[in-house]
Amino acid sequence: MVGKATLFAMVLASILICPSLRAQAPRDDLTQVSDVDVRRTVSGIISYSHWPRLTGLPTLCVFSSAHFVSGLTTPVDSQEKRLFNTVTVKDTQEMFASDCDAVYFGEETLSEQVDIASYAVGHPLMTIAEQSPDCHEGSAFCLVFAGKTVGFSINMEALSRTGVRVNPDALMLARTRN
Predict the structure, then answer these.
(1) Which of 31, 46, 68, 114 could bond 38 through an S-S bridge, CB–CB 3.0 to 4.6 Å?
(2) What angle do helix axes 4-17 and 110-119 make, rounded to 10 degrees?
(3) 50-54 contacts: CB < 8 A, separation 24 or more?
(4) Going by C-beta distance under 8 Å and a sequence separation of 6 or more, which residues neighbour residue 155?
(5) Comparison of pLDDT for 88 and 28, the residue scoring more
(6) If you write DSSP's letter for every residue of 31-54 in order, what string do you get?
(7) What is the tens place of the pLDDT at every residue in 124-142?
(8) What does the pLDDT read at residue 10?
(9) Given a cut of 70, is residue 98 above it in pLDDT?
(10) Where is the signal peptide, in residue numbers (predicted)?
């Protein structure tokens, strides 16, 4: 059995050794969508999700590489109902130390997303990708940008490994939009 420290070292080494695997610069279609719409979409995904044994609000860790980091970490207004706590993280080490219930990936590669989700086995962890429109591997939820709108798609295989239950209505909404 591989210990957490060993697995973390392997993930970190793979990231450092293979810089060519890093995601490309943010896509142009991200600039057309408002922070409010992205926050609303992510809030919807989280509100339709249930973590076993979670007693308070879930914690969403947002990688600092995300285009919408400020929109996700800053409430729209004081009247907004808080559905989750947020923590901005700059790397996997900070993420693992932050006790995340959900992770929002920015420019992290599919390989990094898979490694992080694999590391979290035994700890329910929802994964949401900003830059994976095909959603074939990596995160459970992937934001889809079209013009000035944002929707999402679901990787059912990745979702089944998260340990988080999602209301079927959210699953149908993703299917309808695709």
Answers:
(1) 68
(2) 180
(3) 50/164, 50/165, 50/166, 50/167, 51/101, 51/124, 51/126, 51/163, 51/164, 52/124, 52/163, 52/165, 54/101, 54/124
(4) 135, 136, 137, 138, 139, 140, 141, 142
(5) 88
(6) GGS-HHHHHHHHHHHHHTEE-TT-
(7) 999 999 988 788 888 999 9
(8) 35
(9) yes
(10) 1-23
Residue showing tokens 């991200």: 30
Domain ranges across the chain: 4-177
Band (pLDDT 50/70/90 cuts) for residue 28 is low
CB 122 within 8 A of CB 164: no
> How many CB atoms neighbour CB 72 within 10 A?
21
Domain 4-177, CATH number (from 3.40.1000, 3.40.50, 3.30.160, 2.60.480):
3.40.50
Q: Identity (one letter) of the amino acid at 39?
A: R
- pLDDT surpasses 90 at 87: yes
